[in-house]
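Support request from a user on the community tier.

User writes: "When I paste my structure tokens into the form, the page sometimes reloads and wipes my input. The last time it worked, I copied everything first. Here is what I submitted, just in case something in the input itself triggers the reload:"
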């Protein structure tokens, strides 16, 4: 019996100022065992200011399976959505420009490749979602709930991606304003679909020294604060009274976590680093909820589902300083 051809896969890689590292990522996908006539690689330059555009041209000339695309609107979600729009694949596989793949086209383990020896406290507390890592071993997991699917190692059926409205926003002018793949996965779940984790599908996340610092951890928690407030608002659509209560509660938690961090540090417990970072998390939860409370355009922005079609591509962000357009 003649076997059906494998699904055609579009590997979509948004990139910004990664000229020196992009080739290593691309070559790791070119070297995969998946049939060469059954996948394409779409490199989306997200308005880079270094040599990335020229590097994409060189790669596209060298490897016929590569296509280059420019997305001027800053934000990885814009780049991913733009790549999906021009893709040909039945399955869309999203990854980042700092990944190296062992197996492509499925979701699975994301394990670290440290650029330098990590501090002990990083190994103790950050070998997890804080560095976009996901290692559940070699198991096969099929679940109604998201098992930790990050956009750096995510395959999705094309029609489901577009029905869901694509990735929600992540950043605007360097500041998180949405929940990116978390929001996409929630929308996929609401459409009635399930999730899978395949432990044999492995990609390596390159972790630079700059991500092994307290400053990065603080920033990571701050971003998560904005992200979680956006997600929570979409989930229950709270009114003004509930938003005010949340703002007050997060203000109290900000003060409490500082005290806890100081006590842990005095006791020599490295967990103080996590609690110090939580300060920025609770602060930004309060900030985002304040924007939602005061500005209708932020509420409208948070409730949008479709970030691909119709007027979604021309929608401006609310100004993250003043709350206005």
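"...and here is what came back when it finally went through:"
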């Amino acid at each position: 019996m003649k076997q059906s051809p494998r699904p055609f896969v579009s590997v979509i890689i948004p990139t910004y100022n990664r000229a020196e590292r992009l080739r290593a990522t691309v070559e790791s996908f070119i070297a995969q065992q998946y049939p060469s006539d059954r996948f394409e690689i779409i490199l989306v330059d997200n308005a880079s200011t270094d040599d990335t555009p020229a590097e994409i041209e060189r790669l596209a000339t060298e490897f016929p399976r590569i296509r280059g695309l420019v997305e001027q609107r800053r934000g990885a979600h814009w780049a991913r959505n733009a790549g999906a729009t021009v893709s040909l694949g039945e399955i869309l596989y999203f990854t980042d420009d700092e990944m190296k793949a062992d197996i492509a086209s499925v979701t699975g383990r994301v394990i670290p490749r440290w650029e330098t020896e990590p501090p002990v406290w990083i190994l103790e507390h950050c070998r997890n979602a804080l560095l976009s890592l996901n290692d559940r071993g070699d198991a096969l997991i099929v679940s109604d709930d998201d098992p930790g699917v990050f956009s750096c190692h995510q395959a999705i059926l094309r029609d489901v991606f577009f029905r869901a409205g694509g990735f929600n926003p992540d950043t605007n002018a360097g500041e998180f304003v949405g929940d990116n793949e978390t929001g996409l996965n929630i929308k996929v779940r609401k459409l009635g679909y399930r999730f899978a984790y395949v432990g044999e599908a492995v990609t390596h996340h390159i972790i630079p020294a700059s991500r092994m610092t307290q400053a990065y951890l603080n920033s990571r928690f701050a971003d998560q604060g904005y992200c979680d407030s956006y997600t929570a608002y979409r989930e229950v659509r709270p009114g003004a009274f509930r938003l005010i209560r949340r703002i007050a509660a997060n203000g109290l938690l900000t003060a409490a976590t500082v005290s806890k961090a100081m006590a842990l540090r005095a006791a020599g417990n490295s967990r103080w680093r996590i609690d110090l970072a939580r300060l920025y998390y609770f602060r930004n939860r309060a900030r985002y909820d304040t924007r939602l409370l005061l500005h209708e355009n932020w509420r409208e922005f948070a409730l949008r589902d479709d970030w691909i079609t119709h007027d979604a591509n021309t929608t401006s962000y609310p100004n993250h300083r003043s709350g206005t357009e």
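Agent notes: The reload is a front-end session timeout and is unrelated to the input. Residues 240-266 form the longest helix (27 residues). Residues 35 and 313 are 34 Å apart (CA to CA). Escalated to web team.
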